[in-house]
Amino acid sequence: MRFRPIAALAALTLGLTPLTVSAQTGAQMKILVGFPPGGSTDVLARVLAQEAGKRLGRDIIVINKPGASGAIAANEVASSPTDGMTIGIGPSSTFTISHLFQGIKPDLLERTEALLQVGFQPIGLAAKADGPIATFKDFIEAARKEPGKIAIGMPGSGTMTDLVIRGFVLQEKLEVNIVPFRGDVPTATAVLGGHVQVAGLSAGGFAQHIESGAMRLLASMENTRSITAPNVPTLKELGYELAGNAIQYMYAPKGLPAAERKRLSDALGEAARTPVYVDIAQKNVLFSPTSMVGDALDRYLIEDRTRNTALVAKLGLGKTP
Predict the structure, then answer these.
(1) Which of 71, 216, 250, 291 is placed for a possible disulfide with 115 were both Cys, Cβ 3.0 to 4.6 Å?
(2) Which whole number is the average pLDDT over 290-294?
(3) Fold classification of 29-120+246-315 (topology level)
(4) Is the separation of the CB atoms in 160 and 97 below 8 Å?
(5) How many CB atoms lie within 10 A of CB 216?
(6) What is the DSSP string of 170-218?
(7) Residue 13 has pLDDT above 90, yes or no
(8) What is the pLDDT of residue 294?
(9) Collapsed DSSP state (helix, strand, coil) of residue 49
(10) Is the pLDDT of residue 319 over 70?
(11) Hey, what's the torsion of the CAs at 233, 238, 242, 243, to 10 degrees?
(12) φ and ψ at residue 138, rounded to 5 degrees
């Protein structure tokens, strides 16, 4: 098995006009996003900033700080004053998996305050629709036929997608190149451009391309089939005891006063129930009908970190150079 990053591909983007805002924003309230503009996390952040800002009576800006699978932004939030002016949004994998694959301290959960869940993040393996790989079986056969020739893109080392991909690659003893990008947007660009043959993506990264006919889903990496491609099997149905489980949630620095935590959670919770937010989340296949808050969310995150740590140990995976 060979995991060889292809550095030249990591610079690919969708060519979007940057939506980032300078960090020199004075006393403005801000939401930090650990991924580039246009991806799943960024899309949710921008609607929440707009809708929660109305309820809090202030403008909220979104600042993109991509890198380390979201950990750069999470670390900045964790180090910010506990005045409620700097909060973050990210996938749970940033806090429960990333440290297992990167040189990141495993204490992001302990250094941040979970506010509330704002979405669910399904993941799947996709390929370009007009390419030679039409099914998961095709992918396995192609990887066996040409060892070292198949490249698999994914949105960052230490993501849930990364863990599941490495799991089935290890199980099948494949020799492939696993290419980490900085989020779903450049990963999807690499697939559509033919720079990687397949890619693991969140549904926010593949759904629109499957609906347009530009991509095809090879397997759902969830416990259930994707609502975008319900005829495509899950990895479990294909015989792999692997399934991803990640949520999107809002967080603040540890030590946020209880009253401020409730104020922010209430405003963000109301924002996440507005028609505009529900519409955007559903269109990007990120909507969750339930939302964990407080102690329930804390328990979920701690249990998820424990589950992922055990899975990584079972698979014999770990930090990569």
Answers:
(1) 250
(2) 90
(3) D-Maltodextrin-Binding Protein; domain 2 (3.40.190)
(4) yes
(5) 19
(6) HHHT---EEEE-SSHHHHHHHHHTTSSSEEEEEHHHHHHHHHHTSEEEE
(7) no
(8) 86
(9) helix
(10) no
(11) 10
(12) -60, -40
> DSSP H helical segments within the chain, as ranges?
40-56, 71-78, 93-96, 108-111, 136-145, 160-172, 184-192, 203-212, 258-271, 275-283, 294-315
State the architecture of 7-11+122-220 in CATH terms.
3-Layer(aba) Sandwich (3.40)
Task: State yes or no: pLDDT of 25 exceeds 50.
Answer: no
Domain locations along the chain: 7-11+122-220, 29-120+246-315
The whole-model pTM stands at 0.82
Token couple for 132: 């030679």
| Amino acid (1-letter code) at residue 155 | P
Amino acid at 20: T
Distances (CA, A) of 156 to 106, 199, 272: 17, 11, 26
Average pLDDT of the segment spanning 33-61 = 94
State pLDDT tens for residues 49-95: 999 999 999 999 999 999 888 999 999 999 999 999 999 999 999 99
Residues 144-164: pLDDT tens digits?
999 999 999 999 888 899 999
* DSSP 8-state symbol, 15: -
